[in-house]
Amino acid sequence: MEYKIHTKSIVNISVYLLCNVIDIHLLTLRHCCTLVPKCPGGGIGRRARFRCVWGKLRGSSSLLPGTTYALDKLDNLMIERFIATRYLCSRKNSGFAYAVTLFSFIGIALGVATLIIVTSVMNGFRHELLEKIVGMKGHIVVQPYTRAPIVDYDNVVATIKKADRSVINVIPQTERHVIIIANGFARGALTQSMSLDSLKSKRSVYDNIKAGDTKDFRNHGILIGKRMAESFGLDVGDSVKLFIPDGVITPFGSLPKDEVFTVAGIFEVGMSEYDKNIVIMPLETGQQFFNDGNGVSQIEVFVSDAENVKAVSERVALALGRDFSVLDWQHSDASIFHAVVVEKNVMTLILSIIVLVAMFNIISGLTMLTNSKVRDIAILRTIGATRRSISRIFLLIGATVGILGTGLGVTLGLAVSLNIDRIKNFLEGISNSNLFSEEIYFLSKVPSMIDWGEVTCIVLLSLVLSLLAALYPARKAAKLDPVEALRN
User: The pTM is what?
Assistant: First the structure.
């Protein structure tokens, strides 16, 4: 009798035969045996029918043209994937190893999620600080080496604009320290005097005016920050007194000077340091109040690329000559941003330990799984599985844990990063406490900015470590001697 067995039937037979090794139900095994004709003279028992099937596969080379008893590559991949899935999901006889593998999965997910959240928050923190600080101070600040006001500031502004094409805005202004008095309270403040056109071009302030209108920004109408208004109990239309200790020069020395101003508007840039301490007044009013004549104390320069500000500041300094000091944000606020970068790197390094611990858990779990499946591995070897196939089975288990854990971690990390401020507000509502104090962190909300390059690096790191963690257990399982395993 001639037997015709198709490739699909061979795959099904092989899969179900290996299911017998890992304790598949008897009914499934009987169904497997019905895929081939009954062997002539063979017994009707399960073992006899399996022997008959494998005898046909071994002895009849005409049934598998160009092949031997060893399964082809496609069959091997399907069988290895099937066995890896069974070992990964089965808790029978390897409950502790299953628990360790589960903890590895959770550890990888938490580690990846935490790394994404931390890097996103630190990136957002740096971005927001840069936007707020530069938005109020400019990328470059030009000041005379002497304390004298810059009288011909129109010519200086024209020179700065011609120095580099990346200069997008130049704001001449007067900046002085004063004491503000209102409702029986007094505190220090910093005033910035600028024209209405300059104020409109300073988008960080103009776009964030929460109360009042710039139409009253003239004469003695001023703008104050929201936190300053709250601390003094002020609103639009209220009066405040500004005091300077050296406002009037007399033959006997300087005398204090004070004037009453009206709150024309209230702004909120989102950085408590500025919302609490900044007062903005019209340029002409400031020049008169501080006795600067027609001059200004400094010039703020805004450029298109904040990261390339050093090259622009060098060109501006070269164009202005030696009479002016040119200082960019990378020098004036270097300590703040350096601290943010250092903190981000340290936190990333520390939190990476979570992923490393999960990798060691993978090694432990697969090693215990190998020890509990010694007999199964030996039987697989005796029916034709190669060392490489056994190794791939355990590599698939480790890779599956790594991929699933990394996928869950990326999902959690991105979800939390995109909703970090809402989560903060929710937790504050439950705990009835302030978890993100503006006085400590400078910002009014938790910032977050996802860097997809960093997310990709985190994912690749997790996947590579997961695969490396599975190498040792896979090699140990592949080197197992089937004779010794079955004998013991």
Answer: 0.67
Which residues, including other chains, have CB under 8 Å from residue 331's CB and lie 6 or more apart? none
Question: What pLDDT band is residue 344 in, cutting at 50, 70 and 90?
Answer: confident
The domain ranges of the chain are: 7-69, 95-127+337-487, 146-322
The two tokens of residue 488 are 């013991």
Q: Which residues pair with 187 in a beta bridge?
A: 180
φ/ψ of 269, rounded to 5, equals: -85, -15
Instruction: Determine which helix (DSSP H) or strand (DSSP E) holds 192, and give its type and residue range.
Output: strand 185-194
Cα–Cα distance list, 104 to 400, 401, 406, 411 (Å) = 11, 8, 11, 17
3 state SS of 95? helix
Q: What is the pLDDT of residue 466?
A: 85
In sequence order, what are the residues at sequence separation of 6 or more whose Cβ sits closer than 8 angstroms to the Cβ of residue 271?
128, 129, 132, 133, 136, 442, 443, 444
SS3 436: coil
In 3D, which of 419, 315, 402, 455 has the Cα closest to residue 108?
402
What is the identity of the amino acid at 234?
L
